[in-house]
Amino acid sequence: MTETAPATGRAESESTFTGTGALVRFMVRRDRVRIPVWLLALGLSTAATASNLTSTYTTAEGRQSRASLVDSPAGAAFSGPGYGLDDYTYGAMMANELLGFVAIFAGLMSVLLVVRHTRAEEEAGRAELVRAGVVGRHAPLAAAVLVVGGANVALGALVTLLLGGSGIETVTWSGSLLFGAGLTAVGLVFTAVAAVTAQVSEYGRGASGLAGALLAAAYTLRAVGDMGGGALSWLSPIGWAQATKVYVDDRWWPLALSVVLTGVLLAAAFALATRRDVGAGLVPPRPGPRTASAFLGTPLGLALRLQRTSLVWWGVSMAGLGAVYGAFTGDVEEAIGDNEALQEWVATVPGASLSDQFVGVIVSMLAAVCAIQAILAMQRPRAEETGGRAEPVLATAVSRTRWLAGHTAVALAGGTLMLLLSGLGAGAVGAVVVGDAGLLPRTVGAALAYAPAVWITAGAALALFGLAPRALALAWAVVVYAVFVTTFGGLLRLPQWMDALSPFGHVPMLPGEDMRWAPLLILSAIAAGLVAAGFAAFRRRDLDLH
Predict the structure, then answer these.
(1) CA separation (Å) from 24 to 16, 19, 131, 270, 444?
(2) Closest Cα to residue 454, out of 416, 510, 403?
(3) Residues near 164 by Cβ (< 8 Å), separated by ≥ 6?
(4) Which member of 117, 349, 453, 497 has the greatest number of CB atoms within 10 A?
(5) 332: alpha, beta or left, given left = phi > 0 and alpha = psi -120 to 50?
(6) Angle at the Cα of 462 (from 48 to 322), degrees rounded to 5?
(7) How large is the average pLDDT for residues 298-324?
(8) pLDDT of 134 over the 70 cut
């Protein structure tokens, strides 16, 4: 008995992971375009930003002026904790202001890829076919973790090579290796997070939405922590990556926290996987009422019901994020004080008062985040189509136009609702902090002005859904570019043409700037054109059930 037990354990372990290698090759084959696009986009944008820093801040005085911007509660919340501000080198700028931003997208990449290969496969029914072969219980999850983990390692290696070989002063090879390792660590943590949420939720959107909410919570903890004493930042994997003080002190030990958390989460994911059936989540959906309302029988009612949970989570998150940024409004008044560098920067933003100028900046950033929700909402009809659920609906008296119109209305109205809630959160808290009740309606109005820009992002996704549904992921390029330019455009002094390429760059920066209706009307017309193109193309193509 004593001698046979280990052999039995090994046999069980081997059987539960049988087929992992074949599934890894299959997933790599499926993502032979998707993963390289992610890696090149993140790697090249990081290298391009580093190069832009050297051409923008050519003198030590210019870099110290930049350090003054970071050395404030609002600056720390936007960028990072502010290491090496006494001698603000190019390396310190990279560590403070770029590492955390790129880490967010590394986490997002990990979440989307893991859910795609786990929960989404079960939801579509393909996982059951795979498990009918010689495949162990844990093989699909193990293969997904290996593929996405490998993608994160490749991302870290690519960024290390690009930064280390850039020849930029103070951007050393050792620091670049730590920069890449920090990105990999954050990506691995959210690979494990998504592996857990894929066991909890029965649907892919629920799993990715829950993991995305945790990613947003990690960013918020980092921002609030860096704004204060830094204690809360130690609760965030993004904060751990920035705590390495890349290019300043090059500390490796904070990354050990990411390794431990990744191991714990992966162990939990594999343990949870044994406690549920294939296709089911640990949290089963609640049974609905015995009879549906008349509204649920309409395309709009069905689309709203499918996206109700996501809208609630996003609404709460955006209102909370707006409130966090609104709390900085009073700090900006105090931080600027006699700081000439801050005064020069704020002077570039339209507005008669500091609070109005600051509101213009934070609202533009919140609007770019709202566009992410709009893209996610427009991906729902694609999931319904490939999951085979759209076909029986369209076999009834429901036309393609009515079915797609329901999802489109939810995406467009949902994006506008997110703008409203983020504006209410920022305006309400900002008005209390500053003691100006009029700041609330001004902030809400400024947020709603970005509605046409959000509609364009949703329209781009809809156009791709109709014209080239398998290229729907390209719609993320619009959002990623908008977030990058909106967040770093002013600080990096990016050329005006780059701002003009983003739909968010044409929206007047209310409440400081005068209202201009012409750009909003043009943006609305472009969004309408994209929506019309998507509808026309969808009516003419066959359903794609693969």
Answers:
(1) 15, 9, 14, 17, 48
(2) 416
(3) 171, 172, 173, 176, 177
(4) 453
(5) alpha
(6) 60
(7) 85
(8) yes
**Tokens describing residue 229:** 């004493």
pLDDT tens-digit readout, 207-245: 887 888 788 788 878 877 887 667 788 999 999 999 999
The distance of Cα 524 from the centroid of its chain, to the nearest Å, equals 25
* Contacts (Cβ under 8 Å, ≥6 apart) of 326: 362, 425, 426, 427, 428, 429, 430, 433, 443
Contacts for 252-256: CB closer than 8 Å, 24+ residues apart:
252/178, 252/181, 255/181, 255/182, 255/185
pLDDT at residue 206 in the model? 77
State how far the alpha carbon of 453 is from the alpha carbons of 342, 366, 373, 447, 510, in Å. 29, 12, 13, 11, 14
Residue bearing tokens 């079960």: 122
Q: Which two tokens stand for residue 192?
A: 């494990």
Peptide bond into 73 cis (omega under 30): no
Kindly state the tokens that stand for 117: 């290969």
Structure tokens, 32: 């032979």
Residue 80 scores a pLDDT above 60: yes
Residue whose structure tokens are 């620091």 = 175
pLDDT digits 0-9 by tens, 25-57: 999 998 888 899 889 888 888 887 887 777 777
Other beta carbons less than 10 A from residue 477's beta carbon: 12
Average pLDDT over residues 428-432: 85
- How far is it, in rounded angstroms, from Cα 325 to Cα 204? 30
CA distance linking residue 189 with residue 384, whole number of Å:
29
**Range with lowest mean pLDDT among 123-127, 329-333, 444-448:** 329-333
Neighbours of 422 (CB within 10 A): 32
Q: Which two tokens stand for residue 486?
A: 């909106």
Most confident option among 214-228, 331-345, 429-443, 529-543: 529-543
Distance CA 110, CA 93 (A): 26
- Looking at the predicted structure, is the pLDDT value of residue 2 above 50? no
Distance between terminal CA atoms of the chain? 50
Other beta carbons within 10 Å of 324: 17
